[in-house]
């Protein structure tokens, strides 16, 4: 089943007892979860098991319990790992047999084919695949969001925002909430000033090299190929260091990395793991020193005269940052 059929199902009902949501559009998946939980109004009778929290015993107990007052038992599992076939089959069957129970499975991985067959109409179940939005679809949705937030923004600026963020709708909606804090109309100028666009591949490679403590000669060679001024390089480092700090804090609190919780959108798994590994190497004191070095470097470059002096100051800042990495 695809989004259009799913939207019709939500309007006409009844809801399947089990639903599997998957694909490449986090925004639509999160929207679908919100709609379903709202329709079921499960409230405190909803059990959420996210990623490493999944426990088969807790899941089957929740779906199998009865209610004296007719309350619903909603099980919500979100994971990027496949649930073993035997366990997943049992959960779907439990939801089908128990009139008070519903099972919602959000799968964030890529190997979904073997699981979709378990969510069949025979088991009162369905699976829904979501695809990335095209520019026109995403821009139309984003304009509606802007109207709801009272933001004055034209179509060109909306498309500019989406293109700056690689058509990532979840990111665009998050950034739109930030733009709502500004007064007056929002155009491309305001977007460029307040929204950090997705980092180009060359910059991404440089940042990973820097925080991986690659030799200084390699870093200088990469900087020369960036075609960015010193301020742009410092802003990119600051943005990347902030991401790593958020990953560091989340790992300390929850024991694992979750880019959707940290950033509001899901990174590809290899990049998420890379961010977590880099973040884990830096101590809280190291982060503090890095941010101080960036602030000092920005001030020094702003007051510098010749461009050669700015290059020297940037190099000095890179050396300092490298010394603070674990």
Rg, Å, rounded: 24 Å
What is the distance, rounded to the nearest whole angstrom, between the alpha carbons of the first and last residues?
48 Å
* CATH architecture title of the largest domain: 3-Layer(aba) Sandwich
Strand/helix succession: HEHEHEHEHEHHHHHHHHHHH
Which class of the largest domain in CATH terms? Alpha Beta
Low-confidence stretches: none
User: What is the topology, as strand order, of the major beta sheet?
Assistant: 2-3-4-1-5
**Structural class, from helix and strand content?**
alpha/beta
Q: What's the CATH topology label of the largest domain?
A: Rossmann fold
Average pLDDT works out at 85
Count of distinct structural domains = 3
Biggest beta sheet summary: 5 strands, parallel
Helix content: 55-70%
Q: How much strand?
A: 5-15%
Q: What is the approximate shape?
A: globular
Question: How many beta-strand runs?
Answer: 5
**DSSP helix count?**
16
**Which homologous superfamily in CATH is the superfamily of the largest domain?**
P-loop containing nucleotide triphosphate hydrolases
Short synopsis of the structure:
This protein is an alpha/beta fold and 326 residues long. The chain has helices at 3-12, 26-40, 56-64, 85-97, 113-116, 135-148, 155-164, 169-179, 188-194, 201-211, 216-224, 230-254, 259-263, 269-280, 284-302, 307-324, and strands at residues 18-23, 46-50, 73-79, 101-107, 125-130.
Q: Could you outline the blueprint of secondary structure elements for this entry?
A:
Layout: H1 3-12, E1 18-23, H2 26-40, E2 46-50, H3 56-64, E3 73-79, H4 85-97, E4 101-107, H5 113-116, E5 125-130, H6 135-148, H7 155-164, H8 169-179, H9 188-194, H10 201-211, H11 216-224, H12 230-254, H13 259-263, H14 269-280, H15 284-302, H16 307-324
Parallel strand pairs: 1-4, 1-5, 2-3, 3-4
């Amino acid at each position: 089943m695809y989004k259009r059929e799913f939207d019709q199902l939500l309007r006409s009902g009844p809801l399947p007892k089990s639903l599997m949501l998957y694909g490449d559009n986090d925004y639509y998946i999160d929207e679908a979860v919100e709609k379903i939980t709202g329709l079921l109004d499960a409230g405190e009778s909803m059990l959420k098991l996210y990623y490493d929290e999944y426990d088969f015993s807790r899941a089957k107990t929740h779906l199998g319990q009865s209610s004296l007052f007719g309350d619903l038992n909603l099980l919500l599992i979100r994971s990027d790992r496949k649930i073993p076939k035997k366990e997943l089959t049992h959960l779907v069957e439990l939801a089908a047999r128990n009139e008070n129970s519903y099972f919602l499975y959000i799968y964030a991985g890529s190997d979904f084919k073997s699981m979709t067959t378990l969510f069949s109409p025979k088991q009162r179940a369905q699976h829904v695949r979501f695809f990335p939005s095209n520019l026109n679809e995403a821009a139309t949705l984003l304009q509606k969001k802007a109207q709801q937030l009272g933001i004055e923004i034209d179509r060109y600026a909306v498309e500019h925002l989406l293109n700056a963020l690689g058509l990532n709708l979840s990111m665009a909606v998050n950034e739109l909430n930030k733009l709502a804090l500004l007064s007056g109309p929002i155009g491309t100028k305001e977007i460029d000033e307040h929204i950090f666009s997705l980092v180009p591949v060359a910059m991404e490679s440089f940042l990973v090299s820097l925080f991986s403590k690659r030799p200084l000669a390699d870093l200088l060679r990469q900087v020369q190929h960036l075609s960015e001024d010193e301020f742009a390089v410092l802003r990119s480092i600051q943005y990347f260091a902030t991401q790593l700090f958020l990953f560091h804090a989340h790992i300390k609190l929850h024991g694992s990395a979750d880019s959707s919780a940290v950033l509001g959108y899901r990174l590809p798994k290899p990049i998420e793991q890379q961010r977590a590994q880099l973040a884990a190497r830096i101590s809280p004191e190291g982060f503090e020193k890095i941010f101080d070095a960036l602030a000092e470097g920005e001030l020094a470059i702003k007051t510098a005269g010749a461009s050669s002096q700015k290059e020297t100051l940037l190099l000095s800042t890179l050396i300092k940052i490298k010394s603070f990495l674990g």
